[in-house]
Every structure is written in C-alpha cells, then in structure tokens.
Amino acid sequence: MDKVNIELENQFFSSEKKGSDIKGKFFVGVTQLAVFIIIAVLFIILGIIVYQGRAKFSWEFISSFPTNGMTEGGILPALIGTFILVIVMSIAAVPFGTITAIYLTEYASENSKFAAAVRFSVRTLAVVPSIIFGLFGLGFFIQFLGAGVDTAFNGGELRWGQPNILWASLTMSLLTLPVIIVSVEEALKTIPRELREASLALGATKWQTIKQVVLPGSVSGIMTGTILAVSRGAGEVAPILFTGAAYYLATLPGSLSDQFMNLGYHIYIMSTQSSDVEKTMPIQFATTLVLLLLTLSLNLVAVVIRSRIRRRAK
Amino acid sequence: MNSQFPVNPSFTKESLKKQFRLSEFLAEKIISSVAFLSIAIIFLIFIFVFKESLPLFSFGSDAKAKTEIQGTAKPESYGGTTTEELKPESYGSEPVSNADLKPETYGSDPVSTEDLKPETYGDVKAETPETTATETPEAVSENNEGADKTWSTFFTTEWVPVSENPRFGLIGLLIGTLKVTVIAMLIAGPLAILAALYTSCFASKRAKEIIKPIIEMLAAFPSVVIGFFALMVLATFFQSIFGYESRLNAFIGGVAMALAAIPIIYTISEDALSAVPKTFTEASLALGASKWQTAFFVTLPAATPGIFAALLLGVGRVFGETMIALMATGNAALLSSNPFESVRTFAATIGSEMAETVFGETHYSVLFFIGSLLFIFSFALNAVAEFYVKGKLIKKFQGK
Amino acid sequence: MKDIKIHVNDLSLYYGEKKALKEISMQIPANKVTALIGPSGCGKSTFLRCINRMNDLIPSVRITGEMLVEGIDIYDKNVDVVNIRKKIGMVFQKSNPFPKSIYENIAYGPKINGLKDKTQLDEIVEVSLRQAAIWDEVKDRLGDSALGLSGGQQQRLCIARTLAVSPDIILMDEPASALDPISTSKIEELVHQLKEQYTIIIVTHNMQQAARTSDHTAFFYMGELIEMGKTNTIFTKPLQKQTEDYITGRFG
Questions:
Q1: Domain definitions of chain A by residue range
Q2: Distance (Å) from the C-alpha of residue C83 to the closest C-alpha of chain A?
Q3: Do the domain assignments include residue B213?
Q4: B106, B121, B154 - which closes a domain
Q5: Partners of chain A (3+ Cβ pairs below 8 A)
Q6: Do residue A267 and residue B224 have CB atoms under 8 angstroms apart?
Q7: Angstrom distance (rounded) from CA C35 to CA B140
Q8: Which of A60-64, A186-190, B258-262 comes out lowest in average pLDDT?
C-alpha cells in the first residue's frame, strides 16, 4: 500500500507537496489508490486476455471456419456476422440519430416540452438494460412486424417471423441510437453561431443553412458517433440472444432473413456451453482478444477524433 | 432572379411577401417526426414487452372476453392484420390460442381469483366471473386456476418453470438480483467516486487528461468480455483465495458487474464534481482550508445530487446486466445470504430461458413480465436521476 | 421621401422583461453611410440586427414599433424574413467565412438562390471580389480555403460575399474592430466606394472611423437614440450634452 502510494505520487501527484497534514495526505492517498486500482484492473484484464489469447491469435484463426464441432479452427463466420450486423445497424441508426440530433440542436426551442420529452426518451434509451431490447426485438420485430409481413406477403410461410440478422441489427440500432445522438449533438454545438448567422444573413433559409454549413461542419462528429455505435454494437450480446444470433452455421448468411454468428455470442457459447471448455480455452481467449481489440481500437479512434473536435471548438 | 449583376431589385410588397417553401416545410416536419420516433420507441418498448406478458393478466374468461374485444376492435385501428390473427398462422405447427394453452399446462386449484381480479384489472369488471361461470363452467374454472396459479407462485421462492407443476417464484430471483447489485455497488460506488474525486479535485491537468480517458476506456469493454474474464480468471482466482465451494457465485458476479458500473459512476460523478462552481471552492480555499478539506467538505457535498444520480444509473446498469450475470453468477436460484453461493438474476433468467420457451406459453409470458419489471425499474431510476437530481442541483447552485 | 431609405418609428426591443431599445425613431438616408456610435452595451448593435431581423434568432426577443424599409414594415406578418435578408446584407464584427474555398464563399449566396449557371457564377464571383477590392489578391487561388486568408482579407471576403447577393442595404457591425490599421483603412476606403450603390449602416466604437467614413451619425446611449444628424454637426457642435461628453472622451 505504501509502495503503491509512493509510486503514484511520483506519477500523478503534482500539488499539495507541503504535506505536513497527515490526515489530508491520507485522504488524497485513498483517492489515488482508487484510481490506481481501477486502472490496474483494466490493464490486468487486458494483459491476461492478450497473454492467453496470443497463442491462437493468427491470420488463419481470423480467416477460417470453425471445425470439428467448434473445438478447432477459426472464427471467420462470427467475424463476418458481427461485421454485417454493425453495418446494417449503422445504416438504420446513423440517419435516424443524426436527424434527431439536428432536431435537438437546430429546431427545438429552449422551452419546448416536446424537445424535453425527446431528450428524456433518448436518455432513457441509453439506460434501458440491453436484454430489454432483445425482448422488444422479439416481441415487436419478429412476432409483430416479421410475422405480419409473412402473413401479408408470404402467404403465412415462415420467413421473416423468426430470428434473423435484419431484426438483430435493427434491435441493436435502437440500443446504439443514444450514442450517435449524443455525439452528433455535441459536434453540432461546436459549429460557431457566427457561421449560421453568416448564412442566414445571406438570405439562406434554416434548412439551407443546416444542409450547407452545419452538417458539413459536423461530419467528424457523425463519424465519431458511428464509430462508437459500431464499437458498442459489436460487443453487445444480450439484444441478439433471441433475435438472430446462431450457435453454429456452416455457411455465411446469404440474405437478411438468415441467422448469423457473432463474436460476442461465440464467446458466450464457447465458454458456457461448449462440449469441451478446457480444450477450447485458447480459442475462447483468442476470440475475446479479437473482440476486445476491435472495440478498443474503434473507441480509441473515436476518442482521437472527438478530442480534435473539442480542440477546434476552443 | 439575381442572375444579372449588379441588380438592385427594389423593395416591393410582392418581392417581400411571405413565401411558402416546400422543402423548408418538409425538412422541419420530417426532422420533428424522426425526433418523435425516440419517444415512440420508448412507448413501443413498453407496449410490446408488456403485451407479450398480457396472458398472465387474463384471468379466466376475461381472457376470452378480451380477445373478443380486441378481435373486433383491432381491425379498425390496425387495418386488417391483428396480432391475434397472426399468431396462430405464423406458428401453424401448433394451432393453439393462448386461452386454450393454459388449461393444458396447469392443474387445478380454484382459489382466490375473485379477490385478486378487482385489484389488478378493475377495468374489466363488467365480465364478472359469476356471469361467465354460468355460461362455460369448466373452461372458466380451469382458466382461472392457470392464471391465478401463476400469480400466486410469483411470491414464492421456487423458480421451476419447466415441470409438471411449474412454479415461477420471483422472490428467489429478486433476492439474487439484489445480492449481486449490492455487492457490485459496494465495490463500484466507493472506487468510482473516490477516483472521480481524485480526478476532479487533486489531479494535475495533465494527469487528468491521462486518467479520464483510460478509466472511460473501461466502458468500451463489452460485458461479454468482462463476463468471460470473470468466468475464466476471476472465479478461479477468488476461489483459491477464499476457498468457497461454488466457483461461480454472487460475489464473482458482483465484482465483474462492478467493472461494468465503474465507468458510468465515474464519468457522471466526475462531471458533477467538475460542475461545482469555482466560487464555492475558492471561497473555501480563501478561508484557509486546505485542498483536501475543500474537496471533502465543500466540493463533495455540493456535488451530492449528481453523485447520487451516478449511483442510481450504476444500479440500473447492474440490475439489468445480462451477459455478466449469465456467465459469472452460477445461475442457480438459491436462497441464502451467503455471498459465495450461486444466484440467479432477473436478466440472466430472461437471457438463458427465452430461447427454450414456446411462444405464447406461460413461461414465455412470465419472462416478458420480468422484462416489463426491469424496464419499469430502469425507467423509474432514470426519471428519478433526471428530475429529482436536476431540481436539487438547481436549488443548490441558484438558491431558488 | 425618396432620399430616405429606412424610417424607424418608436421601435422598442425587449429581452424578456428587459427593455434594451427604447422607442427609437430615426430616418436613414439612401446611398449614404450612417454610423451608429455609443458606448458598448448601448444597443447600437442590437438596433443594427433589428434591421435585417437577425434578432429573430433569439427566442426571448420581442419588438414593438415600426421598421419601414422603402415604406414596407419588415416586421409585418406577411413579410418573409428570408427575402428581407437577401435585400439587407450584413457584415459581422468577427470575420466569419465559411470553411470552404474562396470561390464557394462568394458563390454561396447566389447558389442558395438557385443560380447554377457556371459562367454567371464565375462572373458574380469576380465582380463581387473586385467590388470588395480583394480580387487582385485572391484571383489566383480561388480554390483555396478562405480560412487561409489574413484577417483583413477575410473581412473583405465577407463583404464580397454580401455583395454577391446584390443587397440594397449593407449593415456592418464593427467590421474593422479586430483588424490592424492597414486593413482597417482598406475597409474604410471600401465603404466609401460602396455607398454609391448601397445604403450602408455601420456600427463602430471608433469615433475617428465614424468621422472619416460616415455622412450621418447617430449616437446611442443606454438603449436610447440620443441624437442623430450630419456627421460634421455631431462631431463639431452636438446638441446634447451626453453626445458631447462621449465624443470628447469623457466616458465610454
């Protein structure tokens, strides 16, 4: 503990060096310790997963199918499935989220009850447990929309009224919507008022101003939001548990009405329901490593872009 | 137009007349409608999650009465395709309506439906059990038993959904969920708040710029990764330390969920602490208080509402967390106060059993009912965090 | 009557409860430069922004009274604010070019008015830039970002951008306050040339600038119009004590 504190002091401690006050030192030390514990745990997790996963982690692992009852081979279908999932999800969520953000920053007046309700809804969406989205996907997309489409257009033949990649992606898009809205909103707010005024003073209408000046200026914000949403969507499993993820598929999904494999779901299945958990351990760790690298690097990119936006705003 | 240059068109009533711009009008309408969708989604989530649990509420013949009412009312509003009509068709393999299913699934025990009904479903008083009972005595009594049986088992502790005599005791799940939540919050709360305090009050600007993104990076760890880590590494590690029996238990689940909750609590607390007006802290420092005294006795109390909100949202995160619960808690609904026993949470129950249920059966409805409870709970937490806390903050800083 | 471009009658402006402009009545002559002077916070900029209804953007603002431009009340319900702003251009205190190329900055106004013809656009861009006396400096790099220009050039670019939509009236809100003396003199010279074609209203807190560039001067103080008249008269023998105090530098 003492050692930890001293180390931390060298690293982070900047002011309060007079330190005749023991009580104060103790309090500050406790807060430092908390920071240290969190960061240490984070790196321990990262370290162990990298260490355990590196053995199996290779290009071949990423680019081949699982074999021998998923006890050997790679994770290609899970990777591709995740990829399709986040793409379809982004196609649905990005326009939706961007437009909502435009409403909130450009159209909503300050005291509008409607805007307050939209804000509240967005924040609620952000805290609804992800499993609830899964239930909603099942109840709304599959049982209501999908089954409805089947009855209306397929003569009752079961095609859309069952879990598939489209419904899973749409379910995921609801979950990631707040992420996009918040990012885009933040970016829109950094567009200086002077630019909007310049455009309006030239006789541009509100929508022309948004289209020509505001939106081009917030492309990077939309990108940040998309990347963060993709990072989130790639890692979430609960919403797709019963809306489309499959245990094992011998082929890649050929249409949106097919089921798909997914990295996160693969990890869950392999670690809890595999026939031989011990034997597949390296595969599990390597899959986790792939997923973690994916989400963390996406996040890192988003953080970099975001800090650039913030710097520009200053 | 302005094509020739320079042109000085004069001011006339015509040239300045209010114009209707279609694109402008459409843009505004479309944008507001899309924004409205966010509100609609919240409603839809509630309606559709709750709807699937509705069969639980249709006691006896009310179920039939309700389907009849819906059957006639819905075609008007939904334009032809009602869900009630859809279901049997899409699941053609078993042409059984919900009402028919129940008598088969459940046994006998004609108890206190009459007492329960007015309380829960006052709106359907018209169809009293007495009147319907005279019409179809057997069916009604059996139906009554089904729904009522389900309800009465809710308040027991046994969760045995698949058996001859299924029991849906929610108490066991509730206790499991609470146990994990308490453990997670006991770990995450202090750690995250102390870390936030250090970041906003003591850290140098440069240290802050390093610490904050790193801790927030924890939020980018998918819960399935944290769950996997808990399952593979933490479980073994803690078992070797404490030597308890079941490898996966409430404690392991709690520790793992703390990792998921820390970034949320940390970020919101840090924002709240940083939002405390400089005048507060400067006044304290000017009075001769040291930096840590100011932090603990001025900044921290001033940010209490925000930190409270952070904790609420942390609770919401842990309460509804599925993957970690599925992977690290052992998933056995045991009743015990021992933190090192396996538990089963609400969310994990939905996650693990939904795939095995048959559409429309009671087990399916019960899982959706649990989902409704989770949704209402998280909604309420967010509402409290939002309105109560905001009000308090405004009061505090503006003295209104 | 023909010589008066804008009649202002009893114009008052409220920010919520606060009355920021108090019963302003004035007449602004056509094809002349009118300077609005006064200490900061006196309402001169707020008044300027009333003329092209920029204050509409602030939700809490309420305006009473009349603002007649060539006899038309621009606050009339049937008047289109977008069309108003096409006729009444504005140059801001801080130069605010769009983060686009120089060419696109100038072409912005004509383009949003639906002009697509490339040759016409080219012509407008060239004429506007020439009018704003910046053509020679930028003609070889029209495709470069406008943000690469110096502060003074940016401000002249903004003036050119305003000219490109061929307004009647140009409002300038302290256009040279952030510029160096050389750029300032270029802007002042430009203002002098432009008044042949345009009615110019310029807000400034620089008294020498007002004296050099304007034909008429209005002095604002605490939201009221204290005095207005020929610039010569205002600066040599003002009628009001407050005006004299301000001009001689006793306050503000």
A1: 1-53, 59-313
A2: 6
A3: yes
A4: B154
A5: B, C
A6: yes
A7: 89
A8: A60-64
> Token digits for A258?
């097919």
B-chain residues near C83 (CB < 8 A): 15-17, 19
Which positions ≥6 away from B269 have C-beta within 8 Å? B192, B193, B196, B197, B303, B306, B307, B310
pLDDT digits (tens, 9 = 90+) for C183-212: 888 888 888 888 888 899 999 888 888 888
CATH of domain C4-248: 3.40.50.300
How many angstroms separate the CA of residue C128 from the nearest CA in chain A? 14
Is pTM beyond 0.95 here?
A: no
Of the ranges B162-166, B329-333, C123-127, which is most confident? C123-127
ipTM, interface predicted TM-score of the complex: 0.89
Closest CA to B327 of B360, B352, B303: B352
Give the CA diameter of chain A: 83
CA distance linking residue C60 with residue C140, whole number of Å? 46
Please provide the CATH number assigned to the domain covering A59-313: 1.10.3720.10
CB contact under 8 A, A195 and C162: no
Q: Does a structural domain hold residue B44?
A: no
Q: Are C108 and A199 in contact (CB < 8 Å)?
A: yes
Round the average pLDDT of chain A to a whole number and report it: 84
Tell me: do B116 and B201 sit in the same domain: no
Q: Which residue range(s) make up the domain with B142?
A: 58-154
Q: Which residues of chain C register pLDDT less than 70? A: 1-2, 250-252
| CATH of residue B210 | 1.10.3720.10
Phi and psi for C249 in degrees, rounded to 5? 85, 20
Residue A5 pLDDT exceeds 80: no
pLDDT at B153: 67
**Amino acid letter for position B386:** E
E strand or H helix that includes residue C200? strand C199-203
Does the pLDDT value for residue A30 go beyond 80? Answer: yes
What's the pLDDT band for B88 if we cut at 50, 70, 90? very low
Last residue of a domain, one of B154, B184, B211: B154
Structurally, chain B folds into a number of domains equal to 2
| A37·B191 Cβ contact <8 A | yes
* DSSP letter (8 states) at residue B384: I
Rounded to an integer, the average pLDDT of B170-192 is 89
Q: For B52, which residue in chain A has the nearest alpha carbon?
A: A139
- Whether C108 sits inside 8 A of A197 (CB atoms) is no
